[in-house]
Amino acid sequence: MTEYGPRPVDRRLPTEEARDLLTLVRELAEREIRPTAAEEEDAGHFPRATFTLLSEAGLLSLPYDEEFGGGGQPYEVYLQVLEELAAARLTVGLGVSVHTLACHAIAGYGSKEQRAEHLPDMLGGGLLGAYCLSEPSSGSDAASLTTRATREGDVWTLEGTKAWTTHGGVADFYTVLARTGGSGAHGITAFLVPADAEGLSAAAPERKMGMKGSPTAQLHFDAVRIPDSRRIGEEGQGFAIALSALDSGRLGIAACAIGVAQSALDEALAYTAERQQFGRPIADFQGLRFMLADMATQIEAGRALYLTAARLRDAGLPFSKEAAMAKLFCTDTAMRVTTDAVQLLGGYGYTLDFPAERFMREAKVLQIVEGTNQIQRMVIARHLAGPEKR
Length: 390
What we know:
It contains 10 helices and 10 strands. Strand 2 and strand 3 (155-166) form a beta hairpin. Helix 3 crosses helix 6, helix 6 (238-274) packs parallel to helix 8 and helix 7 (286-314) runs antiparallel to helix 8 (320-344). The protein is α+β, with helices and mostly antiparallel strands. A 4-stranded mixed beta sheet has the order 1-4-5-8. The protein has a 4-stranded antiparallel beta sheet with strand order 2-3-7-6, with no helix packed on it. A two-stranded antiparallel ribbon has the order 9-10.
């Protein structure tokens, strides 16, 4: 008989401080997040109190400079924190990734005055952010967005609708990409819009197959007036800002995907070690052992891929291709591993009594958000073979 079951992830971390941080995050996740994850997801409960707790613990600010209240951690460490949070509950891990994405524009492109005014509250003041790029008719073709910002003196007026906004209706601030010039990528500008701006409203959240605790909603901008002091970067620079944010955001999704896959593998290992058939644990049967081996191998490969991209980013080197590869491979891995976990649990895997079916439903969205996996293949191919000939 085999003694078999899940084991802690063996992480390669750059410092003892980072190791202590990951230990803290794992303990917090096991105590405060995982125990209620299934119940709250089933009820569609958004865990705002959890995000407040994470803010107080400094976990919403990890990859940003300490000067403005950030954690000063490299992406190599931040992404492994995301993985631990997503393993406990994807709504939380992905929510932290989205918040980090929403802070990227002002942290990277805002003026010194803007960073001093806004970043401390955004990073550690209990605020939660959202990112508004996609629209009902503008998803993968983000450069065709039509939400418009018109300037009169020192005030901009925003008109239009944004779609698929994670934290739509519950965020405290929105990083919004709007058209300020002509058609195409060069006519887009970024703005920081407070959630209480007059004329800004959220539609009812989308009804989704997974991540029911994370609201995804359309946002309507009906003559929303924003002072020019909330314009981020130069006019027409918005699309470049968006692309730089998405490269980093894709690594966040990759880490979340590995977290979900790891939880699915752990569930499968625990079940197959306990489930007895023909007088022995089913983990002793070669056919199932090979499935577990493949699942573990794919997870380790995905983890190595996103960490390689993170280390490039931390070194200030180009990482766009590697980010696309990590997002593609890790999210496809999550889909395969969670599907196999359901299979390994047999009939129980298809029931709500075990989390395997939730992991499988959640994994699917990760192949879609932050650029579909078909878009990732286009990005990778451009790096390899150059732009498509038209």
